[in-house]
Amino acid sequence: MNIGARFKAVAAAALLGLLLLGGCAPKGEQTIEIRLGEVARTVFYAPQYVALSQGMFAQEGLNVQLATIPGGDKTMTALLSNQADIALIGAETSIYVYQQGAEDPIINFAQLTQTDGTFLFARQTQASFDWEKLKGQNFLGQRKGGMPQMSLEFALRKHGIDPHKDLKLIQNIDFANVASAFGSGTGDYVQLFEPQASIFEKEGRGRVVASIGVESGELPYTVYMAKRSYLNENGEAVQKFTKAVYWAQQWIATHSPEQIAEAIMPYFKDTDLAVLTSSVKRYKEQGTYALNPMIEEKEWKNLQDVMTSAGELKSPVALNQLVNRSFAEKAIAAGSLGNADQPAKAGTNGAADTGVDAGGSP
């Protein structure tokens, strides 16, 4: 980005921040604190960081305390043990808890991403990529039953590859250490989120050869969820939270990768701005970011198809069993950013599919 363009982006972000902060809850109104646990720190969650950095949660009178808890199982444990009020995690985890007969089930109420956020990364530079090249190779995989691994297996089977027979699959490395293990020389292929994929490309450690998000299709990949009891007892706070998320999703849809990178920079202080920008661009181009928080029926079905393919779904779970769409419906109906024209969800080509339902953790 040239200096002039960067200055304009910073100025625009600063101005919006002032406008938002100027519209914060009235003086004397008590701020509501929400403990939010995210499963990873990744550009994949850019709308969340926009909601934080641009004051969208603050305008709703929310004090969101963010904690990164690597690994879907660990983030769910934090939610179940009341160490977090809301979790940003893969929707499949709520199904696992439900399958175990939870008395206070985990309910999904707002979708943040609508595709898988990992990219297939090859250590050796290739003139062209063919899925057949994976056969017999050492593949540094993810946790069994986690969305990255299940989405990978779903994509592989589409291309006639049995992940457990055709690959030398390595699954004994903790989620938080997968990238560093690959960087240290383990594996020929790996799945990486952004910005790690762009960082490794810049360092000459290999290159991205395919998008697992494009291959596995649209699904509620990363969703805000909470205990049913929390939603019942804190409905107003959850509604405010969902409204801020929707606001951020609209902001993402109408701003450039450069502007988004500037806005989320506080959450990636050790990452080069150019790397952040290329990471955001990758996700925007494939329609990864959901443009509203609604979880659609067909996305829920695709999620369960992916789980079934991986052998992780005991029996189908109806959408209304584990999804509360009322918060998203009210947020969309109320609108955000003073814009009466509500955007449609993005398709996987990155363009808005007006009038068409479309839809996206470790």
Automatic annotation (TrEMBL):
Gene3D superfamilies for the chain: Periplasmic binding protein-like II (3.40.190.10)
PROSITE patterns: PROKAR_LIPOPROTEIN
Signal peptide coordinates: 1-27
UniProt xrefs under Pfam families: NMT1_2
Domain of life: Bacteria
Region (Disordered): 338-362
Record keywords: Signal
Entry's family note: Belongs to the bacterial solute-binding protein SsuA/TauA family.
Protein name: ABC transporter substrate-binding protein
